[in-house]
Design brief:
500 residues, mainly alpha, three-stranded antiparallel sheet, 9 strands, globular
């Protein structure tokens, strides 16, 4: 129903454009005000455009060794150790250029309007979320002057230091979450929660927890203070609170469209990911993976048996893969993301989940920052992620008995708490590539081996950030150069502020 409302609004707007030859004089005499568009639809537009791009998935998921493309090209062999600028700019294009301008406009239109205060704070929360992705990806980015080209004529925005960006993101999430009020206007046209203020509050505080935990290495005191605020405010309580963009036949999942189309070959599962799930008899592998039995990839001849899945080992491409250990006989016979479930055309996009949030609480409890039992949070987080797969397909349900059997075989070990928690966060962030990449850098887990693919350009074992897009260098060079002088070289080795 929420999407129908949005589509009807688009159709109404389209009808004005298509009938310009009839009643044009009447339309042109201030009867239609182009600035009167309900700003909730701009928030919806920003939300729709926040879904992850398929290029970003195969690039960042390759960094954390979940998905890999073996075919020759910029990402062959999961080779993210080279500066592949054709894909390092995709997050910039999506979040900075396509999403941010709408959020800035919504905030400008609703600030000071008591009747739209909930919408104002919802937009603040979503802006904080999308700027976390941007600054986590690149480090210093335009923030205080971003999106002001139309409103203020700021065509060449300055770059803000990541520390200043995170300071403001934490403030915005704290203030906006607290300011949401169930007694004020409910924005029913919102496509995430239909304006449910309680769920928006839980999203805001869950994001506050996520943002605070980014600072564990660089500013533990600030991290602890905001973790406590998030915990007290009230984070997600169940999978029903998950922040999800649900797709449909009319508005399909971009990743699903590519996985079922011309880019299917770029969605093979990495050996490290498959082997970890197999080693623990994880029930999620039978939901995530699909392995064809022949080179022809016959749509009727495949297996989803977890024991039969084979991930592609790191460092091989289509010209060398036949030399890999346990080669299945053809490159097409390695395991892929299951396009009948995870990669369906109408597959949902998970932005922030109960499972992720519980795992962050587990780490916070382990650090002594909040009350509660670390093992209980850990178990709730893993179970929450296992159960959220029913959003993809009702047949993906795992029984409580099988979940309990998994925990019995793989008990929580307090002596390896941070490793276990963050390795499970890696699994729980599958298909949420920006978050998987960010938490891998922050926590250092899982303990992955370096990619041995030849042509390495980095000094360390893994890249630390994405390089700025080429066109930004040409358009806003003076401000970008100032950021580089402050942050460090615009390469894959430079670490972002919270990772130092």
């Amino acid at each position: 129903m929420k999407k129908i409302t949005l589509y009807i609004s688009i159709l109404i707007a389209s009808s004005f454009l298509s009938s310009c030859d009839k009643g044009f004089d009447e339309l042109n005499t201030n009867k239609v005000n182009p600035t009167a568009l309900n700003p909730v639809y701009e928030l919806n537009n920003a939300t729709l455009r926040s879904s992850f791009t398929w290029q970003s998935v195969i690039y960042e998921a390759a960094i954390v060794q979940q998905i890999v493309s073996p075919y020759l090209g910029v990402n062959a062999g999961g080779n993210v150790n080279q500066n592949n600028t054709s894909v390092t700019g995709v997050n910039w294009q999506r979040y900075y250029r396509e999403v941010n301008k709408h959020l800035v406009d919504v905030i400008a239109k609703t600030k000071g309007d008591a009747s739209r205060s909930n919408l104002y704070n919802m937009a603040r929360i979503w802006k904080a979320y999308t700027f976390m992705i941007l600054t986590d990806s690149y480090g210093d980015v335009p923030y205080t002057e971003a999106g002001l080209g139309y409103l203020q004529g700021t065509m060449f925005p300055k770059y803000d230091a990541q520390q200043a960006i995170y300071t403001d993101i934490l403030k915005e999430l704290d203030e906006a979450s607290a300011a949401l009020d169930v007694n004020k206007t409910k924005e029913v046209s919102d496509i995430i929660y239909a304006g449910d203020v309680t769920k928006w509050k839980r999203l805001g505080y869950s994001l506050l927890l996520r943002a605070a935990m980014r600072l564990t290495k660089v500013d533990a005191n600030t991290a602890q203070n905001y973790v406590k605020k998030a915990f007290a405010g009230g984070v997600m309580q169940a999978n029903a609170d998950n922040c999800i963009l649900r797709h449909s036949a009319a508005y399909t999942n971009e990743i699903g469209s590519q996985l079922n189309g011309s880019e299917r070959a770029n969605f093979y599962l990495h050996g490290a990911f498959v082997n970890f799930l197999k080693s623990t008899n994880d029930p999620r592998l039978g939901i995530i993976a699909l392995k064809y039995n022949t080179k022809l990839q016959d749509a009727t001849n495949f297996t989803k048996d977890p024991a039969a899945q084979i991930g592609i080992p790191a460092g091989y491409d289509q010209s060398s893969i036949a030399k890999a250990p346990n080669y299945p006989g053809a490159i097409e016979m390695y395991s892929q993301v299951d396009r009948t479930k995870i990669g369906k055309f109408d597959a949902p996009c998970f932005f922030v989940t109960f499972g992720q949030t519980q795992l962050l609480l587990a780490e916070a409890a382990q650090r002594g920052w909040i009350s509660g039992n670390t093992a209980d949070y850990y178990k709730a987080g893993v179970k929450g992620h296992i159960q959220q797969f029913t959003e993809y397909d009702a047949n993906s349900n795992v029984s409580d008995a099988n979940i309990e059997a998994y925990f019995t075989a793989n008990p929580f070990n307090a002596t390896k708490a941070l490793e276990q928690i963050n390795t499970q966060y890696w699994v729980a962030s599958f298909m949420n590539n920006p978050e998987a990449f960010a938490n891998f850098r922050r926590s250092g887990f899982p303990a992955l081996a370096a990619n041995p693919y030849p042509g390495k350009e980095i000094k360390g074992n893994f890249i630390n950030r994405l390089s700025y897009p080429v066109d930004e260098i040409s358009v806003n060079k003076a401000n970008l150069d100032a950021a580089v002088a402050r942050q460090g070289a615009d390469d894959l080795d430079t670490k972002v502020w919270w990772d130092k």
